[in-house]
């Protein structure tokens, strides 16, 4: 039996589990692992500037392609605690990432050694599994179990903590004999599928709610096939956006309090049966449950048994992987074809989609943000992957941009950590360098973890980052209206080095250029499209991140509310002139 260090065994297992890239930062307590990475020679490493940034890169990498698992590596102590936000974000959205940390030697763990912290206990609430490996011989089995757990059931992150002496200890291990553990996947039965079809036959106005579980299961094609067989309109959640193309005849719009379409909410209110697949009934999707549930029955299909009934009890709950459930639903639907004719209901949904739009063609100076998304729709094609995390920019983008494919809207849905967008976009671009990546941030999200732009410059990871700058914590300012205040949320100041910013504070162009990237700034709406075109040229020429900063009006109140039937529209709706037909295709 070959002998090697436990660190080398871990690296060999990573390759045999399909890992090709690492995102991280070396340090004293993890250097044996890095030595093994160097000696093995097959893994590509992206050097982050902050370990939280590395964890978000790993998450973006996972989200970009089916089957990917991003790996984040750091040393002991603060590197592990820096990963916690990344673990939380991944756990909340059911995203598998593997975090590997170094640790003080086993004998020092309870002696307050330098940078020794009980990271497995700290990480446990935000990981599927967090473990400190105390015996070198357990390293292969620990990594084998880690990959099995990340892929089984509801996907999620794992942290493996490796003490320094454990990494250095030699063990008997033959990489050629290593085999990944089998992954258990719950599957819906034919009887359960027939029960769904029976409820469907009793309904007049059914809807499918398509959640992120469909994306995780790589089942978007099956979703569309089932929807077309049954002629049932589809409402994607924010995490499921792209599972059905925005211009598909059965795409009925998003429902929710913030990231929603007017026609999507209205369609939900008129539905009498809702079939949720791979979703979790998030509160920003449902709003108040009395309103959301009134007058309609619910089916809930989810891979995690404890999700069924967590928010409310469905009329029918089915524990199943989304792909497995859709396979059997399609099979049963084909057996029962032809199904009831629902063309009138589907046509009514399309009519709402054509009429209930929001205006985007503002010519105001300073620029209104709606115009930015109109120009982005015109500038970027259906192959574009969008990356965003939180704020008015993300909310309004989800109301107005177009997404046509799964994994082309990549968003930190539940956790929403500021700063996530940039590093996540880098991870996405590493995973799929052939597909255009466009990140979207408000100025505050952009300023968090802004140092990761240097990673894109150093490793030639090109993407376009649209920064809509109103020098405000806009979402918090809007929420503070309920308290009759505008307190501690203004980012504006007179920048003595850039007077042309006229009080908008940070010079993002200079910062980006200082970090090795390219940047352009726009003050007027007619300049947005030329700036986006220029960004594409700079991207192709220099192969680094390119920032397009758009200076917005300071205050914009974005449509949102407390119930799906009480969304407040702040902008005019009676005179929608030449709008981009939100979520229905490019402007003619």
Helix content: 25-40%
> N-to-C terminal Cα separation, in Å?
67 Å
The main sheet comes to: 6 strands, parallel
Look at the helices and sheets and give the structural class: alpha/beta
Q: Give Rg in angstroms.
A: 25 Å
**What is the typical, i.e. mean, pLDDT?**
93
Number of strands: 21
Proportion of beta-strand residues: 15-25%
Low-pLDDT regions: 578-588
Count the DSSP helices: 24
Task: Based on the model shown, name its key terms.
588 residues; alpha/beta; 6-stranded parallel beta sheet; 24 helices; 37% helix; disordered C terminus
Short description:
With about 600 residues, this protein is an alpha/beta fold.
Fold and architecture overview:
- The protein is α/β, with parallel strands linked by helices.
- The chain is built from 24 helices and 21 strands.
- Helix 1 (6-16) runs parallel beside helix 7 (139-151).
- The longest helix is centred in the middle third of the chain and has 15 residues, at 322-336.
- The chain is globular.
- The model is unreliable at 578-588 (pLDDT under 50).
């Amino acid at each position: 039996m070959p002998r090697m260090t436990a660190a080398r065994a871990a690296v060999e297992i990573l390759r045999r589990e399909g890992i090709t890239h690492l995102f991280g930062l070396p340090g004293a307590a993890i250097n044996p692992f890095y030595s093994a990475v160097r000696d093995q020679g097959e893994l590509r490493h992206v050097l982050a500037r902050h370990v939280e940034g590395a964890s978000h890169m790993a998450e973006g990498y996972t989200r970009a392609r089916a089957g990917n698992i991003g790996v984040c590596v750091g040393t002991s102590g603060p590197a592990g605690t820096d990963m916690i936000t990344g673990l939380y974000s991944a756990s909340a959205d059911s995203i598998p990432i593997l975090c590997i940390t170094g640790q003080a030697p086993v004998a020092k763990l309870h002696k307050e050694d330098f940078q020794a912290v009980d990271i497995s206990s700290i990480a446990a609430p935000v990981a599927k599994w967090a473990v400190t490996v105390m015996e070198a011989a357990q390293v292969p089995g620990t990594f084998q179990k880690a990959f099995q757990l990340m892929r089984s059931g509801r996907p999620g992150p794992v942290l493996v903590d490796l003490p320094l002496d454990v990494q250095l200890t030699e063990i008997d291990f033959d990489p050629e004999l290593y085999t990944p553990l089998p992954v258990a996947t719950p599957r819906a039965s034919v009887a359960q599928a027939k029960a769904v079809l029976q409820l469907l036959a009793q309904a007049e106005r059914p809807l499918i709610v398509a959640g992120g579980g469909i994306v995780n299961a790589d089942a978007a094609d099956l979703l569309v096939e089932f929807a077309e067989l049954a002629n049932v309109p589809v409402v994607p959640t924010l995490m499921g956006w792209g599972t059905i193309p925005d211009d598909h005849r059965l795409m009925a719009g998003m429902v929710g309090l913030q990231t929603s379409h007017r026609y999507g909410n209205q369609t939900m209110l008129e539905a009498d049966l809702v079939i949720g697949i791979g979703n979790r009934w998030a509160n920003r999707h449902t709003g108040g449950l009395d309103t959301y549930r009134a007058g309609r029955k619910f089916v809930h299909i989810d891979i995690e048994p404890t999700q069924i009934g967590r928010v409310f009890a469905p009329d029918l709950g089915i524990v199943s992987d989304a792909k497995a459930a859709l396979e059997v639903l399609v099979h049963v639907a084909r057996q029962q074809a032809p199904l009831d004719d629902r063309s009138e209901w589907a046509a009514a949904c399309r009519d709402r989609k054509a009429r209930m739009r929001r205006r985007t063609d503002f010519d105001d100076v300073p620029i209104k943000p709606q115009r930015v998304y109109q120009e982005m729709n015109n500038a970027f094609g259906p192959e574009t992957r969008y990356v965003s995390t939180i704020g008015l920019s993300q909310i309004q983008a989800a109301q107005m941009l177009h997404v046509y494919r799964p994994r082309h809207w990549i968003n930190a849905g539940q956790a929403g950590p500021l700063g996530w967008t940039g590093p996540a976009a880098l991870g996405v671009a590493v995973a799929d360098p052939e597909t255009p990546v466009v990140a979207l941030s408000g100025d505050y999200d952009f300023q968090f973890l802004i140092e990761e732009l240097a990673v894109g410059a150093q490793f030639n990871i090109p993407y376009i980052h649209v920064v809509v700058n109103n020098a405000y914590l806009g979402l918090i300012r809007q929420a503070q209206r309920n308290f009759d205040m505008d307190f501690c949320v203004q980012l504006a100041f007179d920048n003595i080095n850039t007077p042309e910013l006229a009080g908008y504070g940070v010079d993002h162009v200079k910062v980006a250029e200082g970090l090795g990237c390219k940047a352009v700034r726009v003050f007027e709406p007619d300049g947005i499209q030329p700036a986006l075109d220029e960004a594409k040229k700079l991207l192709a020429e220099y192969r680094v991140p390119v920032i397009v900063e758009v200076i917005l009006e300071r205050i914009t109140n974005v449509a949102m509310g407390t119930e799906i039937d009480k969304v407040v529209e702040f902008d005019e709706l009676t005179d929608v002139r030449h709008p981009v037909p939100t979520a229905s295709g490019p402007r003619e």
